[in-house]
Amino acid sequence: MRRKQVLPLAALLLCTPALGGTAPAAASPQSAPTGPLRILLTNDDGYNAPGIRAAFRRLSAAGHDVIIVAPLTNQSGTGTKILSGPSVTVKHPEPKVWAVDGTPGDSVLFGLSEVFEDRAPDLVVSGTNFGPNVAGLANHSGTVGGAVAALEAGVPAIALSTGGFGVPDAVATVNAMRPTVDFTVTLIDQLQARAKAGRLLPKGVGLNVNHPVVGSDGTGTAAGVATTFQDPQAPLKPDFIDSGDGTWKVDVKFAPQPAAKGGDVEAVSADKIAVSPMSANWNTGPADFAMTSTLLSGLRP
Question: Fewest Cβ atoms closer than 10 Å to its Cβ: which of 71, 90, 188, 288?
């Protein structure tokens, strides 16, 4: 797995030139308003999960115009999957809430196409997710997948997760969602202030934010904020056990490796908020591209 190239946070927040990424949608925002933002809020835990509801309340209280367009049911682990069927069921159970019977990516695509048909949102926020989306976990995260769908459409996106690098404690994690969404408001305020009516984030760049669970009850304050890259380890180790009848029992063990220095795992493990810039593609960095090109040189069909 490639390491994400990371800018220092100050440089990222001040930077406005395009850094690459996919072609923006025709209706995608080119600049951020100086006042309240129009936010599409999604997740992978489901439209009525505690994390997305906490984010909805806090972002709305901060003055933003927030509309939930999120999965009807829990879609954890669906990654970037989209458009998996010829039709989709969509419910509108309450004002400002749309529930899509599909993945987070499906929800974002429906939101951009229908709910925000007149004008794209200024920002897509995905989460806050129950549990961390660091290291290899982020590759398969529906929360991150929702943010990727927005980035592919040219809309700035932030993925939010709450949890330490381990098995989440339910009560403490839910409690820690409050400081997670409080930090999100602070983050958006700073992005707006430094955008100066320009882009909230460089073109094609999103943020994967992981907030730790601090204290035994999750109500503690994070030790700081770190600009990180995605730790290259894959902590989930599957084991397949033959049942003898053509089926195999799947057992998954959590087997973390030493944290990479400067990575998201190191930051969250130190009770810091990890903010990892990300793109919506799988391009390598220039050094890896050059090395791989050398390995492939001389190939003929």
Answer: 288
- The structure's pTM equals 0.88
Greater pLDDT, 237 or 167? 237
**Strand pairing class (97-100; 123-130):** unpaired
* Domains of the chain by start residue, with CATH: 9-296 (3.40.1210.10)
* Type and span of the H or E element at 208: strand 205-211
Inter-CA distances, 117 with 97, 135, 258, Å: 15, 35, 46
With CA atoms as reference, report the closest residue to 262 among 229, 239, 232: 229
Q: Can you name the residues that pair with 205 across neighbouring β-strands?
A: 279
- Which DSSP category does 204 fall into? T
pLDDT at 24: 36
Q: What are phi and psi of 116, to 5 degrees?
A: -110, 35
Percentage above 90 pLDDT, the chain: 81
Nearest in space to 236 (alpha carbons), one of 133, 132, 136, 134: 136
CB atoms within 10 A of CB 166: 14
The type of residue at 48 is: N
pLDDT (tens digit per residue) in 214-257:
999 999 999 999 999 999 999 999 999 999 999 999 999 999 99
